[in-house]
Design brief:
The complex is a heterodimer of chains A (301) and B (136).
Chain A (H helix, E strand, L loop, with lengths): L1 H12 L3 H19 L1 H14 L8 H21 L2 H15 L6 H23 L3 H44 L4 E4 L2 E7 L4 H18 L3 E8 L5 H16 L3 E5 L3 H9 L8 E3 L2 H12 L13
Parallel strand pairs in A: 2-3, 3-4, 4-5
Antiparallel strand pairs in A: 1-2
Helix pairs in contact in A: 1-7, 2-4, 2-7, 3-4, 3-6, 4-5, 5-7, 6-7, 8-9
Chain B lengths: L7 E6 L2 E6 L5 H18 L3 E5 L8 H16 L3 E5 L3 H9 L9 E2 L2 H22 L5
Parallel strand pairs in B: 2-3, 3-4, 4-5
Antiparallel strand pairs in B: 1-2
Helix pairs in contact in B: 1-2
The chains are: A alpha/beta (301), B alpha/beta (136).
Chain lengths: 301, 136
């Protein structure tokens, strides 16, 4: 796809000799960039420092990455193989994303390299403007394609990481834990969106059936916020649990959530709420007829 | 009994009636079930009724309204009703459609329903038993 774009671009400018131009000029250009590798790479590195990019990395790391990015860049200019670059960019992203490198930094350094190399081409061909034009015709599409590929790979990799984390969180998010016979605890940690709330209801109701639960304690100490949809969903879950013969105790409503729920007018009159998980467990034990007594003489330590 | 025995079975268990709904009932079958059950409560002088809907994977608004009505009619005839065996999906669908069981008590399954009825009806029975001379 990128290949087609560059061909169209070149053909529009100079129809016939362009193909030939590109074939001849690119190797020439690559040879030039290889020859001045050290100088250009240093210039690029200093430009990166000037613009305060990649400050999350140490100078040594940056020098190492800069070298390999430079070599890959020149290689892709030479071969035009985007696949190899994609692979490299994904690999690079995998390494630098955990270090906190941002999208704008990655795009920024690739564009800086493109400009540094373009400058050096200006310098080399400044006496022959026509030739310079043709060199740039060959260079620019290839360079833009590289910038594009690196940016897309980086963003793809980041999205993959985010998706992976979301899946992991979702899987762990709604455990239904039996603590005593006929008593379940359902701790909710993290943001409760409607998808999670739906999953929670499903797991809770099937948990009630499999564990033959009579009392369920839902602890929402770890939930930062709820909205109207989720609050109503919680109320429905409590009602549905009652239809299955289990009573629900909700514990750990934060001051913020308590205020939100009352302000948005969710009807919580039928809900049995208790301040914290400890109180909720004590109430559940009372409902089930358990008495927990501390042995005389036992120490807590 | 005119209602098909295959759709609902109403069994006497001591002073309780156990009505098991085996399949989804249409409106007229539901009404027939209601008539039969209310008639049987008087016939057996039942003190408690368990309606087991475990076999149902869907319960429409008319169905749940009729169950509420049956419970109220049974109360007027002197019996406590408990609905048991509502499936998770059915339970949540009922709540979402805003058609719970009202004030009718519910329990997980038949066993729990019996425990519930014993706790509600049992004490009045034992009170009655106290007044009776055990040797007569």
């Amino acid at each position: 796809m990128h290949m087609d774009e560059s061909e169209v671009h070149v053909m529009r400018d100079v129809p016939d000799p362009s193909r030939q131009d590109k074939d001849q000029l690119l190797p020439q250009l690559v040879a030039h960039l290889r020859e001045h590798r050290t100088k250009l790479r240093q210039e690029w590195a200093s430009r990166i420092q000037d613009t305060h990019l990649l400050e999350a990395m140490t100078p040594q790391e940056m020098a190492a990455e800069a070298t390999s990015v430079y070599d890959n860049y020149v290689e892709v200019l030479e071969t035009g193989s985007v696949e190899a670059l994609q692979h490299y960019a994904r690999d690079l992203s995998e390494r630098i994303i955990p270090r906190g490198v941002e999208t704008h930094e990655v795009i920024g350094i690739v564009l800086l390299l493109r400009d540094v190399l373009a400058r050096s081409l200006f310098e080399k061909y400044q006496r022959d403007f026509a030739l310079l034009n043709r060199v740039l015709d060959a260079y620019e599409p290839a360079a833009n394609r590289i910038a594009n590929t690196v940016a897309v790979s980086f963003v793809d990799e980041r999205e993959r990481v985010i998706r992976q984390q979301q899946d992991a969180i979702r899987e762990l998010s709604t455990p239904v834990l039996p603590v005593r016979e006929r008593l379940l605890i359902l701790p909710i940690i993290g943001v409760l969106d409607s998808e999670r709330a739906r999953q929670l209801t499903e797991q809770l109701l099937s948990g009630i059936r499999t564990h033959r639960a009579k009392v369920v304690v839902i602890d929402i100490t770890g939930a930062p916020d709820v909205d109207t949809t989720v609050a109503n969903h919680l109320v429905q879950t409590v009602d549905a649990s009652r239809l299955m013969g289990a009573s629900v105790i909700i514990t750990g409503l934060s001051p913020k959530i308590a205020q939100t729920l009352v302000t948005i007018g969710v009807d919580l009159s039928k809900m049995n709420t208790i301040g914290d998980l400890q109180g909720g467990l004590e109430e559940a034990e009372r409902l089930l007829g358990y008495t927990v007594t501390r042995e005389a003489g036992a120490t807590s330590s | 009994m005119t209602s098909g025995a295959a759709l609902v079975s109403i069994l006497r268990q001591g002073s309780y009636l156990v009505a098991s709904v085996h399949t989804a009932l249409d409106d007229s079958e539901m009404i027939r079930f209601q008539n039969d059950l209310i008639a049987q409560i008087g016939k057996h002088r039942s003190r408690g009724v368990i309606i087991d809907v475990a076999a149902l994977d869907v319960l429409d608004s008319f169905g749940s309204k009729t169950l509420r009505n049956i419970a109220e009619m049974a109360r007027l005839r002197g019996a406590v009703t408990v609905i048991v065996g509502i499936q998770p999906d059915v339970a949540f669908a009922m709540v979402q459609l805003g058609m719970g069981t009202g004030n009718v008590p519910t329990a997980l399954d038949l066993e729990e329903g019996l425990v519930f009825l014993n706790s509600r009806v049992g004490h009045t029975e034992s009170a009655a038993a106290l007044q009776r001379d055990p040797y007569s």
